[in-house]
Amino acid sequence: MYIITLEGREEEGAYSVTNEVGEQVLYMFEDEDDALRFAMMLEEDRDYPPMHVIEVDDDAILTACIENSYEYNIFSQHEFVIPPEEDGNDFI
User: Fold this and answer.
1) Read out DSSP for 66-87?
2) What pTM did the predictor assign?
3) Which candidate, 42, 46, 14, 48, places its Cα nearest to that of 28?
4) How many domains does the chain have?
């Protein structure tokens, strides 16, 4: 599983978006290339600072989400995802 962080600030949180009810949703990707493509879209289309894709242990990240009541979305391999246009992107 792969998550997106800010380059050089990996310990400060992972990329998330705000859903329609105001909850932060952590984006996770099964495929590294898909995560890299999404990170590049953030940098190029949304003018984000440099991003870093890191691999995380599936069980550990899911357990952390459940224990901390974080919402999450897992994108399967080759699922094409476009960053949301609205504000509300954040790092949790």
Assistant:
1) HHTT-EEEEEPTT------SSS
2) 0.86
3) 14
4) 1
